TrEMBL record:
<dbReference type="InterPro" id="IPR013783">
    <property type="entry name" value="Ig-like_fold"/>
</dbReference>
<dbReference type="GO" id="GO:0005975">
    <property type="term" value="P:carbohydrate metabolic process"/>
</dbReference>
<protein>
    <submittedName>
        <fullName>Carbohydrate-binding module 48</fullName>
    </submittedName>
</protein>
<feature type="domain" description="Glycoside hydrolase family 13 N-terminal">
    <location>
        <begin position="27"/>
        <end position="75"/>
    </location>
</feature>
<dbReference type="Pfam" id="PF02922">
    <property type="entry name" value="CBM_48"/>
</dbReference>
<dbReference type="InterPro" id="IPR014756">
    <property type="entry name" value="Ig_E-set"/>
</dbReference>
<dbReference type="InterPro" id="IPR004193">
    <property type="entry name" value="Glyco_hydro_13_N"/>
</dbReference>
<dbReference type="GO" id="GO:0004553">
    <property type="term" value="F:hydrolase activity, hydrolyzing O-glycosyl compounds"/>
</dbReference>
């Protein structure tokens, strides 16, 4: 798993790139990154599958904020990214959300 942040000088935006290796997605055919930046919509921000089997997606997020997020594979398998800046309780049992600090 990897998260890369590219802060833009021209506007208060950060391009956040998410990348998952095929072994990390439990052989899923579809993976989405969901969070408070897209109202936890499981159908938005789908990662594109690359030729090597990995998945990648980039979003532009406003800087000066924190965003909670998780991944969902094939619409049902939720998991976190180990490279999140920190983790907080999701409010659903013992599940935790990753946090991006921008």
């Amino acid at each position: 798993m990897s998260i890369k942040k590219q802060f833009l000088k021209s506007k208060p935006v950060c391009k956040v790139s998410f990348k998952l290796q095929k072994e990390q997605v439990m052989h899923a055919s579809r993976v989405n990154v969901v969070g408070d930046f897209n109202n936890w919509n499981e159908n938005s921000d789908e990662l594109k599958q690359l030729k090597d089997g990995s998945f990648s997606h980039t979003v532009e997020l406003e800087t000066g904020r924190e965003y909670q997020f998780r991944y969902v594979a094939d619409g049902s398998n939720w998991f976190n990214d180990d490279e999140a800046d920190r983790f907080v309780s999701s409010g659903h049992g013992d599940a935790r959300n990753g946090v991006l600090s921008l």
